[in-house]
Amino acid sequence: MRLLFLIIAAALSMAPAATARASAIDCLKATRPVEHLVCDDPELLRLDGLLNQAFAKARKATKTPKPLVDEQRAWAERRGAECGLPAGQPADRDRQWSAAGCVARLYRARLAELGLPQPAPPPSRPADFLHPLCVEAMLASLPVDEPARPVPLKACGRGFAHVPVDETRPGLFGSATASQGESGWFGYRVAARLGDGRDVLVIFESGGGTGVFSEVAALRRVAADGETLMTAESLLAGGDRCNGGIETAEVTREGALLVESYATAVELLELAGIDPDEVDPSMPGCASCCLGRARGVVSQAGKSELVSLTLDSLDPLAGVAGAPACLGGLLRAEAPNLPHVLVAAKVRALGRRFRETCLAPPPRASP
Length: 367
Prior knowledge:
The chain has helices at 2-14, 33-39, 42-61, 65-82, 93-113, 132-140, 153-159, 265-271, 322-334, 344-358, and strands at residues 151-152, 166-169, 172-179, 182-193, 199-206, 213-224, 227-240, 246-251, 257-263, 292-298, 304-311, 340-343. By secondary structure, the protein is an alpha+beta fold. Among the domains are: 16-113, no CATH class; 244-361, no CATH class.
């Protein structure tokens, strides 16, 4: 659970400050390209909230607010044009990336004029650094039944260079996100490399609440015309923390992709061959009710075949009655000492014993 707690802490600490919610832009009614850019960029959204607060404070402090209001309105009108954004028609992805850093600099300069200087922009990173928001851009734009649109590494990196990145643990890179003014968090770590040269990424994502959802994706880099183009393919969708949240991914010597994910009692029974509709609703299945970790081989089609299940704790089954208590008894008999590894055949056998012992038989038909 250590990695999951680190990810949750990162998601909370990296989320845009509350000032983003004080943005001067109503993102649900945004029409101009610069407004859409701000609403979908976590750092610009934060700066816009700070600017709105700084302007309100300056306006309140002056006895002649009209010149200040006119000045601020003129600044807001010209910020897009000064950074190459069109006035009316939507801006494409590449133009938004080209303009984002410029818009951030305009915001910082305007904040300084209003007496609220901002810290220096994030330090520059190597040209081949993979910004978390570039990974998000690849996965978010995956089309259905069509080839994925390549993302240029350098152009995307420049487009998000102004957005801070935090390395919460070695190799785990994350940053705040924004979509139509709503904040969240997105992170990744490179876990392994497939035989065909693709990198395996473990993805963690939060929409701003307590949930942290995970995914395994494959990233391909292709050199073209002096640029590195990237495409991503989702290999396995994970769940929210104990509900199938992904912990690790690795490639064996034989080239198989092994993924380890967390499991609750509900997931354990499903892996054991019990249909979820048969499971008692009181069976612990919450996002913090981890029983253990399942290891499985993931095929090219995204299907996972169970290899083993490591039981780490039976605490979620303590102090309960009915089918959960029955399952707890079976597990304690099978694994008196924890952690305990059950191979796939043992897990299936456990499912059969659970069905025979813990599930109520169907009522007999009346004669």
